[in-house]
Amino acid sequence: MSGSAASSAPSSRADVGDTIVDWYATAARDLPWRRPGVDAWAVLVSEVMLQQTPVARVEPVWREWMARWPTPAALAQASPADVIRAWGKLGYPRRALRLHETAVAVTERHGGAVPDDVAALEALPGIGTYTARAVACFGHGRPHPVVDTNVRRVVARLVHGRAEAAPARTADLADVAALAPAEADRAVRFSVAAMELGALVCVAGTPRCAACPVRDRCAWRLAGSPAHDGPPRRVQPFAGTDRQVRGRLLDVLRAAADPVPAAELDAAWDDAVQRSRCLDSLLTDGLVEQTREGDYRLPT
To answer: How far apart are CA 131 and CA 39, in angstroms?
Structure first.
């Protein structure tokens, strides 16, 4: 099958999106931020936490976070130190500070209500195009196409006949919009349904095609499931990286009620050069402060 034929066959089927939405109704995971009555703030928090972090690690932290800070105004009143401690082991802790800054901005600019406009959402601290569209769609029911890594992989196989997704591109939004059902409510559900299909069935590497609701209309399968012909996916290491060292240093500060002398941080990592570099980066990122006495603490 030619590339152009593979690209047109599945997307010309008007019922592909409806089929995926119907599959989602019975196959989706029961995640707390997807339940009826969950507001846009809860969705925004979940989306920020889920960036590069598995659902299993996010769910308990999200529950504790929402119980403690159920509104942007509540989080805005918290100290940065409390926010970093509550973030715990989710990783990439700058997200915690950005979320705190977002809560302040929503409280001051929007009266404490998360906006439903994509442009207004993108104007919030640390909120990119994907998160803005996800909050507008999942939090406010606006039928915007939402594209993450899982959705791009589904579209790459289903529409374009490729084993894996290419780098993100503007046309991804149009691809998703073309597959979405015409009815607004179902178009909203389609974006999350496509994500779930990519997370559970159309996974990277070896997809579970036998469980796919649209396997008979998948361009990749119709083309004989050709192998990925691009560069191999790189698995980012963690052990020994600056990310690990930064996490070790933050662990010490999170556990301390008072400022910590440098000697206590020295015990967190043996390599003095790497430890110093990581401590400097934490100071630059605003995740750590140094006192006049030369000790270290979480930001106040």
So the answer is: 15
Between CA 106 and CA 113, with CA 107 as vertex, the angle to 5 degrees is 65
For residues 275 and 240, what is the distance between their CA atoms, to the nearest angstrom?
11
Residues annotated as catalytic are 47
- pLDDT reported for residue 14: 56
Cβ distance 94 to 285 under 8 Å?
A: yes
Residues of the chain short of pLDDT 70, as ranges, are 1-14, 233, 235
Q: What is the pLDDT of residue 154?
A: 96
Side chain identity, residue 213: P
Q: What mean pLDDT is reported for the chain?
A: 92
The token duo for 282 is 């934490």
**Structural domains in the chain plus CATH codes:** 3-23+144-222 (1.10.1670.10), 32-140 (1.10.340.30), 242-297 (1.10.10)
